[in-house]
Design brief:
about 220 residues
Length: about 220
């Protein structure tokens, strides 16, 4: 009689018979790539806007700051995390008219663009180099989710727990020695744009589960 086995069992048998060198690939075939889990589930039906704040003026250009937010919103839409996204450029226009000495509360910024929820990212680091010579792109932020109606923080939980100042997220690229010291202004601008795209991706990835191999998220 011919015996039928579940596909996973056959793969394990092949791995054992073939030697130790194929055990790891067989494990990946059965279990799939390692996952990085979301930290918070957004309500996909509530109108939501991404706002990137830079109180310390660490991001070199306003367009780069806007690009971070736009990259994040695109990823959230593409991965089905949100169905109703307010364009991040609209909230940036409101901020441009705001009084820097008396800034509008985050929930009021959201209301001004008819958002019910604000994904609020406060930039703590955005740099291309740490020594003036090597290209070492890195960025860090603290992320909160704010309910515009109540003004309350939805995430992280406002009472107790970790990260009361926001969920940290950060990225760091591989070092390219000597590049920054000889790069033109145009090349540096291009690297800033690339960093903005990756940073936006990392912020968005807080809110959906994804494969570790394509994760932009690093230490915070």
């Amino acid at each position: 009689m011919r015996m039928l086995y579940p596909k996973g069992v056959v793969l394990v048998a092949l791995a054992v018979l073939g030697g130790c060198n194929i055990v790891a690939p067989a494990y990946l075939l059965i279990h799939g790539p390692e996952k990085v889990h979301r930290v918070y589930q957004l309500d996909k039906d509530r109108p939501t806007v991404v706002f990137v704040d830079d109180p310390a003026n660490l991001v070199p250009r306003r367009s780069v700051r806007q690009a971070i937010a736009v990259a994040a919103q695109q990823q959230l839409l593409e991965h089905g995390v949100l169905d109703n996204v307010i364009d991040a450029r609209s909230v940036m226009m409101v901020v441009s008219r705001d009084d820097p000495l008396d800034p509008m509360p985050i929930e009021d910024l959201g209301k001004a663009v008819e958002a019910e929820v604000v994904i609020y990212a406060i930039v703590d680091e955005f740099a291309l180099t740490n020594d003036g010579q090597s290209l070492t792109p890195s960025a860090k932020a603290r992320v909160k989710v704010i309910d515009c109606a109540s003004g309350q923080r939805l995430f992280p939980a406002p009472e107790g727990g970790a990260w009361v100042e926001g969920q940290p997220v950060g990225i760091k690229a591989v070092t390219r020695p000597g590049f920054f010291g000889t790069a033109t202004l145009s090349q540096k601008a291009g690297e800033q744009d690339k960093l903005a795209q990756e940073f936006g991706l990392a912020i968005a990835q807080l809110f959906y589960t994804h494969e570790k191999q394509v994760s932009a998220r690093g230490g915070g």
